[in-house]
Amino acid sequence: MSKQSGRGRVAGLPEWDRCAVMGVVNVTPDSFSDGGRWFDTTAAIKHGLDLVAQGADLVDVGGESTRPGATRVDEDEELRRVVPVVRGLASEGVVVSVDTMRASVAAQALAAGAALVNDVSGGLADPAMIPAVADTGAPFVVMHWRGFLEGGNVKGRYADVVAEVVDELHTRVRAVLDGGIAPDRIVVDPGLGFSKEAEHDLALLAHLDRLSGLGHPLLVAASRKRFLGRVLAGPEGAPPPARERDAATAAVSALAAQSGAWAVRVHEVRATADAVRVARAVEGARTGAPATDAHSGRPTTEHPTTGRPAREQPAAPERT
């Protein structure tokens, strides 16, 4: 199977010649990763624009924490948090994804300019979600989900995590298709960290080709997650705080890009933007395909190490 099979194109979104970078804007006071730094609307919009300046291709805006143990916010509060930020970013030309499990929030965010709905429940949390998205024709992310996590990491038992996640995603994708969402507007996500232990997440990352076999572009959302903390801590140490897991996140991003992921969802964009471009440059060296400019789509000559177009390189090496 080609490593590119999971990349593909998502109808209704720009087409990138490499793994896209989805930056995260949490408009929440209780995110595990940033603890409410972007809870203010103005700060959230600025942060989203900063992520684009750092290399994000699209920005995922969410108003409800989905970390284990988080309490759900009510609908009005989620709308108050999300819609103004979506509108502000979309007005600046940003490709915006809305991270929500509510059909009403998805519909109003799409009306405010969002281009993609990223539902961690894959439409299971709100029966109105799939009809609402189908009516708009928006692309939809179907994540592997086994229920709300208010009680912790529920239903995390697997005999064969890769086979079970693939089977459950296949069933969910079938339901989404039956609900009227077009096949070329579906993205799948293995749901790293959702009802999964570290060994489950690592097994899924090791077998992204199996997930790509579902026939839809693949989103990988590993950023700062608990399994990275476990890996970095080793057998005896304490896991590092979430914001100290960005280098590990960039490593996963490079691996996912090499495996053909359509996009990676990350909190710290710059390192991952570099990682996916390096992965693309290595891929180009292997296949002989020219790299293309991320914005114009025209072929460019790239520096073999940085992956940046030649026109961005200094005219002569710096001397020390």
Describe the protein's architecture and organization:
The structure is a single chain. This protein has 320 residues and is an alpha/beta fold. The chain has two domains: 20-289, TIM Barrel (Alpha-Beta Barrel), CATH 3.20.20.20; 290-320, no CATH class. 37% of the residues lie in helices and 11% in strands. It has helices at 41-53, 75-90, 103-111, 129-136, 161-178, 198-206, 208-212, 226-233, 246-258, 269-287; strands spanning 20-26, 58-62, 96-99, 116-119, 140-143, 186-189, 219-220, 263-266. The protein has an eight-stranded parallel sheet. β2, α2 (75-90) and β3 (96-99) form a beta-alpha-beta unit. α1 packs across α2, α2 runs parallel beside α3 (103-111) and α6 crosses α8. It is globular, with a radius of gyration of 19 Å. The termini are far apart.
